[in-house]
Specification:
single chain; about 350 residues; alpha/beta; Rossmann fold; 2 domains; four-stranded parallel beta sheet; 10 strands; binds pyridoxal-5'-phosphate; ACCD_DCysDesulf; EC 3.5.99.7; TrpB-like_PALP_sf
Length: about 350
């Protein structure tokens, strides 16, 4: 077995405890078997309730930096039903901070109904600013402008990029790899292993790629299923996040873009737009494994995994850990389509 290092040697920065860790691993009793896979769920949907999903791990690092900088307000952005924005709103509430969320909508003059994550953002006391799809292209500038505005009012903002996907936030998933390796049964720690996950802004992928290399875990091969942009975009984004992280923490490994495996065959019509196949696999996972997937991220990743499982050489290995990154609240805006 190749030598592995624990991340203690990497001199990682501090984090605040926000996620319930370690999250459990549990076998897929029926969905995996039907696909001819040996399938485990890594239940990162159980990092919490308010702070459920993968964003909780990223926010542990981001909040530590925000607090060290003396911030009193978190500023971030996302799609209208962003899980990241909701998690940030609750992280702020738990730590006695405020949150300003820039949420992307078709028409800012006609804000959407307070359903699902938007309801939760409001309950957590976050200030919501609606931005159009056009304005959202300049989201980094818009967030900087909000930070200046807050500064002029005597407040101190900490800006978190979309999805919490900064080099710092990504470290949450480096630790998740170490956590997974510690909890896997002995037989799963040797031999080829697929790590399947959904890619939305790339931070989770960057952390997983850094993690398997930092641990020297060569048999573990991450495969990211894109939910919006194409594979070339995400290879570049993830490699850039990893390179930035390595500049900041030089003990981190190199992650070449051409080693990244991203599958963009399951995006469907676009971000947060479901396909009938995607909805069907959500129903199957619920009925057959008793697990809730979501239409925006994990449903697309599971559809990708299920499809590639049936193709020869479609996956690095038939032994698979599926990172369940959360998103349950994202089911509710699809109630009519799902109940049919
Ligand atoms: C944000 C999110 C993802 C994507 O993670 P990134 O780090 O943004 O790529 C996957 N699943 C769920 C449920 C999410 O909310």
């Amino acid at each position: 077995m190749p030598a592995t290092r624990e991340p203690a040697a990497l001199n990682l920065p501090p984090r605040v405890p926000l996620a319930r860790l370690p999250t459990p691993i549990e076998p897929s009793p029926r969905v995996g078997a039907a696909l001819g896979l040996d399938l485990l769920y890594k239940r990162d949907d159980l990092t919490g309730l308010e702070l459920s999903g993968n964003k909780a791990r990223k926010l542990e690092y981001l909040l530590a930096e925000a607090e060290a900088a003396g911030a009193d307000t978190l500023v971030t952005c996302g799609g209208v039903q962003s899980n990241h924005c909701r998690a940030t709103a609750f992280a702020a509430a738990k730590r006695g901070l405020r949150a300003v969320l820039l949420l992307r909508v078709p028409d800012p003059a006609r804000p959407p109904a307070p359903e699902a994550n938007v309801l939760l953002d409001r309950l957590a006391g976050a200030e919501i600013r609606w931005v159009s799809h056009d304005e959202y292209r300049r989201r980094a500038e818009l967030m900087d402008a909000v930070a200046s505005e807050l500064r002029a009012a005597g407040r101190r903002a900490y800006v978190i990029p979309e999805g919490g996907s900064s080099p710092l936030g990504s470290l949450g998933y480096l630790l998740a790899v170490a956590e997974l390796r510690r909890q896997l049964p002995e037989a799963w720690r040797t031999g080829p292993l697929t790590l399947a996950y959904a890619v939305g802004s790339g931070g989770t992928g960057a952390g997983l790629e850094l993690g398997v290399r930092a641990l020297g875990w060569k048999d573990a091969r991450p495969v990211g299923f894109a939910v919006c942009n194409d594979a070339a975009y995400f290879r570049a984004t993830i490699a850039a996040l990893c390179a930035d992280a390595r500049r900041r923490w030089p003990a981190l490994p190199e992650v070449p873009a051409d080693e990244l495996r991203i599958d963009d065959g399951f995006i469907g019509p676009g971000y947060a737009q479901a396909t009938s196949d995607g909805l069907e696999i959500i129903r199957r996972a619920a009925r057959e494994d008793g697990v809730l997937l979501d239409p925006v991220y994990t449903g697309k990743a599971m559809l990708g995994l299920a499809t590639r499982a049936r193709e020869p050489g479609g996956l690095p290995a038939p032994r698979v850990v599926f990172f369940h990154t959360g998103g349950a609240f994202g089911l509710f805006p699809f109630a009519n389509a799902l109940a049919g």
